[in-house]
Amino acid sequence: MLSSTASSRRRPRLPASLFQGFLPVGKGRVPAEMVAGLTLAALAIPEVMGYTKIAGMPVVTGLYTILLPMALFAVLGSSRHLVVGADSATAAIMFAALTPLAAAGSPDYVALAGVLALMAGAALLLARILRLGFLANFLSRTVLIGFLSGVGIRVACGQLAGMFGQASAGRGPAAEVWNWAKDLGQTSLITLAISGAVLLTMVLGPKLLHRAPWALLAVIGAIVASAALSLSAHGVITIGAVPRGLPALGWPSIPAGDYAKLGAAALSIFVVIVAQSAATSRAYAAKFDDEFDENVDLVGLALANIGAGLTGTFVVNGSPTKTAMVDDAGGRSQLAQLVTAAVVLIVLLVLTKPLSYMPEAVLATVVFLIGVRLVDVKGMREVLRRRPVEFAVALATTLIVVFIGVEQGIVLAILFAIVAHTRHSYTPYDRLLVRGAGKMWTSLPLESGAQARPGLLMYRFGSSLYYANASRFADEVRGLLKDAKEPIRWFCLVAETMDDLDYTGSAVLKRVLDGLRRERIAFVACDVPAPVLQELERDGLLSEIGKEHVFGDTDDVIKAYKSQVLGGGRET
After folding, report:
1. 289 and 232 both lie in a single domain
2. What's the rounded Cα separation, in Å, for the pair 39 and 30?
């Protein structure tokens, strides 16, 4: 990944050490950061408790994700804005990977979740050591839209039964929706009323007062109503006792053979963490003209996940929604996140009893809304309007996540992104260059056969020359020679966009040179980048071309052709 560049107006650069995310902080900023931290706690506590339903974890573990993990990143990360905590995408991947191995919410399941967080942390540390952060770039914005939309559909469908007071049944969105519709006659009207009230509060509340913590108010209201009216005695299922106190610190114990079974999920989670965290950090660094070091952030994310694994909770990620919460509340550094962690600490020590009255339908409704908001209909429409081919990739990713699985979706999303990139470079924008009025260069389609001067063909290849497009290069050269309107004496390769030449590309270029030599056509080149020149020399092709036939730019080619072939004369 590329690190942000500093400017003279940015804060002084700190060494790669602790507290980069909030030092220096002016005294005048402390009250605002505290308010932002309290706001984040109010909004994030019900959200992360909802994520435990996606992850299949006990409710209290949601609070654990914004305790030690959030504090570790705040101290060790470099981004002043990125908020780390539970995330729907990584939670969904985890659930898909762990449910075949243990019952959701069981001690064995929690131990597996802890090990998965540790493995993700180890992968992030290894990525920092090997500088593999560039892997995040294989998840394009288009693919991320499709992937997260698919996750949103899966998440929302999985909560319908809980919102209606039904027993959850079926694996996968299709089965869950079918069973929900089939069991509508078993709906608990009181549970449905609670879900409706929470839904209306969270949807309509922000339209009345944007900054109010409507999710928290809905949760508190439901808890008060549940306790006051003894709703559990009327068939409303509550989450039950929530352990008070701090999480136990220790290495989760699982069978040795299960480590290998978690490898694919850990890799998928690693890619999502790197891609989503980097994209969020970049966006907010650009917004506030801050600098950050993505390599330092990899360490912060790694240790946040290791902290999660050692404290009995699940994987954490850079969260766009929580980052936006802090931004909206006026937070401008990780000090706000430290305040949030302190609030969660207080909740765990003295306020877990009230949580036991919370109806499960409340969390189901919170998670349902999270899922619905992940479905980026506007983004999909925009991609369809501007890039129909990329829309097909995004839609395919969505369908795979919905109907096959989240793990498979992330792997195939990366493959789709690579294929889409390869497709662009496989069909580069190749043109013929001619000089028109005022000696200005212009480009024309290959079909025109246009020659820069009688007998001089100037062919600009629009990409690096490598295995995927090498045969296209050879075919286009043959076609240009075959369809030439006048005999060609010089064939010039304009290589300004050719950044690389791989082994296959070199071999094909050698065959093209041999073919031109047989036709008694001189091969020349111009605008050749230095790395490509080195590759040509290493492969022995520079000596075949002749250094005297490698020119600085197109004007130099014209002058040489005029002098050596046309015998001088005034340039026109």
Report:
1. yes
2. 14
